[in-house]
Amino acid sequence: MQNLKDNLSNKLFQSIKTKLFLVAIIISGLVYADISLAVPDKRSQDFPAAEVKNHRESIEVTIEKETSVNEDLKTKLIQAASYHKVLKAELNVYNVQLSAYGNILLQSQTPVSDLEKARIDTLKAKDALDLRLKELSEINEFFTQLSNQTQEQLVLNEKQLSDINASGQVDALTGNLKKNLKTLITILTAKQKNIEKIFEIYKPLQKQMEEIRTALLEVAEKLNRLIETRKKEALFQRSASPLLALNIQLIGQELSLIFDKLAKLASVHFWAAGAASFWEAAGQGILTALVLYAVFLWAIISFRRFCRNYEKTSQFDKTPWRGLVFMIFYKTIIVLGTTVFIYVYMYQQAESAMMVLWKMALDFLLLWLFTQLGLSSLQAWNKSPLPAISPAISKRICLGLRIIRYFGIFYLVLGVLLENAGGILLIMRMLFGIGLFAGYVYFWKSIKPHFSELSDKINSIKPLMAGAGYFIFGLAPVLELIGYGHLSLYWLTSWGITLAACLLGAILMMAIREWQHHLKNNYQPEAEKLTKDSYTMQWLFMLLSWVLWAPMIIVSVLMAWGGKDVVFIGFFRVMTYPLPIGDMQLSLIGFVFSALILLITHASARLWRRFLRRKILIGSRMDIGLKDSITTISVYLLWVVGIFISLRAVGVSSTSLTVIFGALSIGLGFGLQNIFNNFVSGIILLFERPIQVGDAVEISGTWGVVKKINVRSTLVQTYDNASLIIPNSEFISNKVVNWSFKDHRIRRVITVGVAYGSDTSLVSRTLLEIAGENPGVLDEPAPEVLFSDFGDSALIFKLRIWTIVDSMVSVETQIRFEIERLFRERHILIPFPQRDIHIL
């Protein structure tokens, strides 16, 4: 089929290229004919002989190419008929398979293992149909394009023939054109008919395959529901006691089957064939999953490295419970992340036969994860400042968890080999239950001497703990011995998950309580704003942790005891329940997504602000105000995009947004004029930048520094550390003195008086010397001294200097100190004001 596509494509390209040349010749001929009709005395002029020859050759080549393509289509039509027979046979097999599986669904005594095989076969058939449908879709798409191109050629050639007939010109050239065009139209018409015949073969097949695929999915879903129902029913169905049902011959057959399957697993041919089949069924999807997992694993490892560095710098001595949670998370993050990834991918592949493999991998990972949580909790506990657990107790618990882990792995492997049925699995469950109970009895007796090391609270609940353990671990082998094997396994698995969830829930509860106590004791109202903001954020997350803690434990316990469907289905029903308001369809999950989008926008805006300032604009040599304007405008744009996306997530359509903006415009006309005025003024300030962050401004006689230009107002901090919150419109409509606009230099004048009779030249030189030695005084423009006036008590001199706005007060102070010191050393007298009063 691929050769068919390549041949048709090449021939189609050659045909189109030839026809384009033909069209050019025909158009030239028509233009010539029009000119000949308009100018009768030049009608005898004709095309050169070379052009006539090229024209005839192009027509002949085109006809030859199209004839060849048409012959190929006839051949492919025969092949399509043969292909049709093959696919019809496959469809008949699928119909028979559907009928057989329908009968299985109607039988009430079908074993669960047979139902699982039927479901796997159904999904495999669906995957095979997907490949066929993909192939048919590509074929139909190719012939659709070829049909459209052929139709365009027919329309073009028929129009050209009609134009030639309408011109009324009769000569040899026109006759040849008409003859060749008619031949070409006949060939293209036959070509179009062949394509339509191919469509008549392939399109019904595609439709039938899609119908069968839908039916297979429905049967697979029914089988899945029936399997779940049968598994639940099997929990309370009693079978013969394992001691009575043991059959040595059956066990021998099972052992032989296990060795045969292990021999197949050891052969290279098995893995090569399996890999080829696996790649054919889901090769592209697996490759995509591996790439995504590699990226995901790299992110997890990077985060784990960050956690390791954070652990070295954090003071978990003051918060041991939070340190314990951190260490548990740090030690299990790779297994936890891999489990979550497999679960999400398995959810995406729910309609594929490959889901069986992913479910198997998920069972292994979950077993490893729960045992790893227990081991990591013990290791982290002993490394924390919390009261240490006795090494004897720790070793016994770790040994028990490892035994459970490796027995579970071995049991899962045998379950795969024996297809979850057989006497060997029954014997293993029975021995494991008895061994688990015996191990618990031994563990409890061996740790009795260590109870004196524990607190009084733990000692008070010791009988309750012992009784619960004897009941849990003792009931499992009893259920197994009386014939409730499935219930015994379900009992142990559910209690194991429940105990793990309760243990982690208790640790999380202590960590949250510790976090709450730590925040309460470390809050300082007089602290800086950053500390207050940090406290507020931590307080909100702490409250959120309390809100999520109880539902998390309840959901974990429900899922442990088989409430998975109830939890997830009920949760999604509540979250997706529509709340119609006018034309809008709101839902809780929409609000959740909207909140997540806003949180992501907030985090992205903060990261972007920091990245833009520290990475991109750091070496631009721009003014601080310009950098701040660029950063603020880009953050505003990011927030606008985030808000629009969050509104769409909630369910607000473009029509609703139009209504909202219309209401907003009415509000602007009434009560929001000042807010909108300040908002627009803020945008003007950011773009025009008459003032910018860092500028020294004077407002109504008050000096201050611009700290931040917000949406509605501008924050100005005075030199007395008072914060002025000024509406943006004030800077646009009123007069503002900006002392650092475009230039941070400022001229200051220091006035000093000297006594009459002082050496004025010495005074001038001294003042210039003081100004020249001060590092805060600029060299350009140079300082200068003015003999200002003859005062009542002194000769008035003025020292004019240039300095920077930020340092003007300190520079003036330093200069005045120097003036006083040098004048005293050089005996230049600074007189105090005096008046002579004559009393008559």
What are the main properties of this structure?
five-stranded antiparallel sheet, alpha+beta, three-stranded antiparallel sheet, about 75% helix
Describe this structure in words.
There is one protein chain. The protein is 75% helix and 7% strand. The chain has 23 helices and ten strands. The longest helix is centred in the first third of the chain and has 63 residues, at 172-234. α11 runs antiparallel to α13. It starts with a helix and ends in a 15-residue tail after the last helix. The strands form three sheets. The protein has a five-stranded antiparallel sheet. Strands 8-10-9 form a three-stranded antiparallel sheet, covered by helices on one side.
| Rounded Rg | 44 Å
Can you list the strand order of the major beta sheet? Answer: 6-5-4-3-7
Number of helices: 23
Largest sheet: 5 strands, antiparallel
Uncertain spans:
1-50, 525-530
Cα separation of the termini = 133 Å
Helix content: over 70%
Determine the strand fraction and express it as a percent band: 5-15%
Backbone structural class: alpha+beta
Count of DSSP E strands? 10
Summed up:
The protein is built from 23 helices and 10 strands.
Explain the layout of strands and helices:
Blueprint: H1 2-38, H2 49-106, H3 112-167, H4 172-234, H5 242-245, H6 248-266, H7 268-313, H8 320-348, H9 355-383, H10 391-418, H11 423-446, H12 456-460, H13 462-481, H14 485-522, H15 529-560, H16 564-576, E1 579-581, E2 584-586, H17 588-616, H18 624-650, H19 654-670, H20 673-688, E3 696-699, E4 702-709, E5 713-718, E6 723-727, H21 728-733, E7 737-738, E8 745-754, H22 760-773, E9 784-790, E10 795-804, H23 808-825
Antiparallel strand pairs: 1-2, 3-4, 3-7, 4-5, 5-6, 8-10, 9-10
Helix pairs in contact: 1-2, 1-3, 2-3, 2-4, 3-4, 7-8, 8-9, 8-14, 9-10, 10-11, 11-13, 13-14, 14-15, 17-18, 19-20, 22-23
